[in-house]
Specification:
Structural class: alpha+beta
Strand content: 25-35%
CATH class: Alpha Beta
Number of helices: 8
Protein name: P1 family peptidase
Family: Belongs to the peptidase S58 family.
Largest sheet: 7 strands, mixed
CATH superfamily: L-amino peptidase D-ALA esterase/amidase
Shape: globular
Distance between the termini: 14 Å
InterPro entries: ArgJ-like_dom_sf (IPR016117), Peptidase_S58_DmpA (IPR005321)
Pfam family, one: Peptidase_S58
CATH topology: L-amino peptidase D-ALA esterase/amidase
Length: 354
């Protein structure tokens, strides 16, 4: 089995194979790596400006709603993104939401006074196998540190919010990917758009893992010489999937795009188990919505030409999950718990076969 992630699907990747191939999108991490504390914060900035005053169309698809995120209800109702997107562990959601509000107040002092209140947007996964969540180690300063670290170059694996996450009972975390989609417009003209994905991968049972359509879980357990690597307990993980695109879509169409993230997730072997929180958010950078404007007019693609974007969404999510697995280093955390990185597992299999 190869030690680098294969390219998945028929579509080409963008130059970085990252969500930041969508112009204006940046990602920052703050990683906590202190013994029993293995956690952090990841922030996705949708554009370089002020998202409260210049909002973006967005939508959420809740595939399995076992989760404790903040901000989904208003986003579903109004269809706009007005903050960066924050990822962290379950017990840190409130702290990070407060940090988001403080950061927005620094840029918009009249929020909650002469201006409407803010809809903070924080997603979570439970990193409690490796991280002592009861330490409440994530602080507001860690959100601000992730904001300060925003970059087009995205670290993957056991970083930021992904530090303590597990995926298919191996080390999981942050993964990202992109795909280029060619859309045929009215009259036969063609336009190329980018769809980028970033995932916080914390789900799955090892026997279910598929890599590029091939059932790989049993072989991986055998490589490690430990067939008991897979825990027989029910799957209780989660995944957050963020999709960005420069295609001109409205909130309704972005909801359709977000739903296709589930196709990419399913290809890796997930069945969205009872205890798994599987949530996808999609936003478009093509057109900004100015706060307070009395009217707006968006130029949109027709629904019947969206299939290439749907392919790109599924492929980029599947690729991002696989990239998280291949990028993640092995991590030891609370009470001696350890998750082995995929590359270490493959190396162990090579050594056994030598």
């Amino acid at each position: 089995m190869r030690h680098t992630a294969p390219h998945l699907g028929r579509l080409a990747a963008g130059p970085r194979n990252s969500i930041t191939d969508v112009a204006g999108v940046r990602v920052g991490h703050c990683t906590l790596d202190q013994g029993a504390v293995q956690s952090g914060v990841t922030v996705i900035a949708p554009h370089a400006g002020n998202p409260f005053t210049h909002k973006l169309p967005a939508a959420v698809s809740v595939i399995n709603g076992f989760g404790k995120s903040v901000g989904l209800m208003q986003l579903q109702e109004l269809g706009v993104l007005e903050t960066p997107i924050a990822l962290t562990n379950t017990f840190a959601v409130g702290t990070v939401a407060t940090a988001q509000i403080r950061a927005a107040l620094a840029d918009n002092p009249e929020i909650g006074r002469s201006l409407p209140t803010l809809n903070p947007l924080v997603f979570e996964c439970n990193d409690g196998y490796l991280n002592d969540q009861q330490a409440f180690a994530v602080q507001e300063s860690h959100y601000h540190a992730a904001l300060a670290a925003l970059s087009q170059d995205v670290q993957q694996g056991a970083v930021g919010a992904g530090r303590g996450m597990s995926c298919f009972e191996l080390k999981g975390g942050i993964g990202t990917a992109s795909r280029l989609a060619t859309v045929v417009l009215q009259g036969g003209a063609a336009a190329e758009y980018t769809v980028g994905a970033l995932v916080l991968a914390n789900f799955g049972k090892l026997p279910d893992l598929k890599i590029d359509g091939v059932a790989a879980g049993a072989a991986l357990a055998s490589m490690a010489g430990n067939k008991s690597l897979s825990d027989p307990a029910p799957e209780k993980g989660s995944i957050i999937m963020i999709l960005a695109t420069d295609a001109p879509l409205d909130a309704r169409q972005l909801g359709r795009l977000a739903t296709r993230a589930a196709a990419g997730l399913a290809r890796t072997g997930s069945v969205y188990g009872h205890g798994s929180g599987d949530i996808a958010l999609a936003f478009s950078t093509a057109q900004q919505i100015e706060a307070g404007a009395a009217s707006m007019q968006l130029s949109l693609l027709q629904d019947q030409v969206l299939d290439p974007l749907f392919y790109a969404a599924a492929d980029s999510v599947e690729q991002a999950i696989l990239n998280a697995l291949y990028a993640a280093e092995s991590v030891s955390g609370r009470d001696g718990h350890r998750r082995v990185g995929l590359r270490e597992l493959l190396a162990a299999g090579d050594a056994q076969g030598a």
